[in-house]
Amino acid sequence: MSVRIEPPRTTRRPRFASQRPVSPPVPISEDFAPAPSPDGRRVAFLSDRAGTPGVWVCEVDAGAPVALPVGDEPVLALSWSPDGQWLACVVAPGGAPRTELWVLRPDGTRRHQVAGFGRRSAALAGWLPHGAVLAVTETDEHGQALLVDAATGHRRVLAQGDLLTLLDVTPDAGTALLRRGPRNARWLEVLDVATGVRRRLFPDTGRGSTDQGWFGPDGTSVLARTDAYSELSALVRVDLTRPEQPPTRLAGRSDAELEHVAASADGQRGALLWNTYGGRSELSLLDFASSVQRAVTAPGEVLGDAVFAADGGLLCLTAQGPVQPREVWLVDPSTGAPRPLRPDTGVPRTDDAGVAPQLVDLRARDGLPLSGWLYRPAGPGPWPTAISLHGGPEAQERPGYNPLFQALVAQGIAVFAPNVRGSSGFGRSFVAADNLAGRYGAIADVAACADFLVDAGVARPGQLGVLGRSYGGYLVLAVLVNFPGLFAAGVAECGISDFRTFFAGTEPWIAAAAVSKYGDPHRDAELLRDLSPLTHIDRLDVPVLLIHGANDTNVPAGESAQVAQALADRGVPHGHLVLAGEGHDFLSRTNAEAARTATTGWLTRHLAATATLVG
């Protein structure tokens, strides 16, 4: 086991643990999901500065952003039409996983809904190159790929099927690119729209997943990000005129996963976001014709939301770090020089800069290499310590902006945020290592983290807490029932407590996609019963705070309610916070802060109380 201390590469100056104690930071607004106008002169983006994510538009290098009237519901995604006449918004009514697609003029007029009616959920793939026709996926029990005219709402269905997502359409709408399959086992299909004939893009390798793809500029090739041919995701090209040939590798690294590719509208260049070990981002620009790749200075530790303006003359993305909230940055593709969209970007907007995390390596109980980010309070350890578990599980703990971690550290609580098996960013074998019965190993990884923290002098025995949301909320409950006595308190946010009730209550497309990760609710019923924390709830005897969104239809709110009832029946101390107007993700700043405050207070109170018992 070893500890690596690496200062974050951020545009702000962090405070390290050896300096004076910090004050709890006041969470501030974040800007994200940029959508540049076709000519690159304006950028629309999402911001929660008004309380919930809404749409704002800003002239590049001129003036303050202006809010557009998009209603009171939170907006999740945004895109500007190639003709410049429309903005498309993915809206989440009540914060729930079922989403709607609305369009409006860039001046805020003519707002109307075009997809996601009734029980269907809408996702935007993009626009056809000319005019204002949207490529959309609608999902309920099944998925359907369709084209929608932004002005008239006219709909044309291209394909239907289970676990289907539309990724791209050729300019003549004659051929569509579809993604099929469950989590971590997806593949691409090319659809001849006229005949309805589909063919798989490349042969099934029996491993890996292909999650992103688009047509080349002449429609005779497909570019795809996949780990079907390598341990770490890479970029490949498939020649549609010679399907017998294996894919050509365009970009890949042995030290980093290719996380995302943003292609310019003319298909000449791409922006590549690389996920290096531990979760830091690197950015490069790739010329598809020459395969020449050029590194670009990253304006933050974690990058995302990369998108080109239609003319290819401007690249937009978001950057964040431990003390750097998500903000929109602009990159000139010709020079690679980044600059902020907002004049005050890069200037601290909180009273304190916060603390920098340290990247830690350790081993699981079965020897598997693990890692995580350690946030240390000021002064010498050991400290009361909380292990924070991310969602997914195919997500990753990265050195991004997290005001909860800073608030806990300000209270004298160390935070360790690990990437247990099943996390993304470490290759296809690692992300699949928790599938089905492998989940026992993921649960044991949390216990290994606790052992390591005590052995390393970070944590005091008896003063360990555990918290997490979504899949992390499930892991909180699972580790508390599987390793009683290891933790003194827990906070489980939006977590599965019983796989039987989860599969019965979640959205049908979520259930279908989850089988590859968790197991089939019928074929693997006994495994899922044993892996369900509610099955062993009699072993849970420490204070637990349960937090859930009232409108959550991903992990239904009943998953927390049945744990609260079971603990109440046994007289186990617990809290149960249900946030009105929220779904699986807490999108209102007020509700998100309520959850943070409750979590910080719960862990501070119960870990401090434990300290008096252990001396």
UniProtKB/TrEMBL annotation:
Keywords: Hydrolase, Protease, Serine protease. Coiled coil: none annotated. One of its GO terms (biological process) is proteolysis. It comes from the Bacteria. Residues 1-40, 332-353 are annotated as: Disordered. The keyword Magnesium does not apply. InterPro entries: 6-blade_b-propeller_TolB-like, AB_hydrolase_fold, Peptidase_S9_cat, Peptidase_S9A, WD40. Pfam families: PD40 (PF07676), Peptidase_S9 (PF00326). The keyword Cytoplasm does not apply. GO terms for molecular function: serine-type endopeptidase activity. Residues 405-608 form the Peptidase S9 prolyl oligopeptidase catalytic domain. PANTHER family: DIPEPTIDYL PEPTIDASE FAMILY MEMBER 6, SERINE PEPTIDASE S9 FAMILY MEMBER. This is Peptidase. It comes from Micromonospora arida.
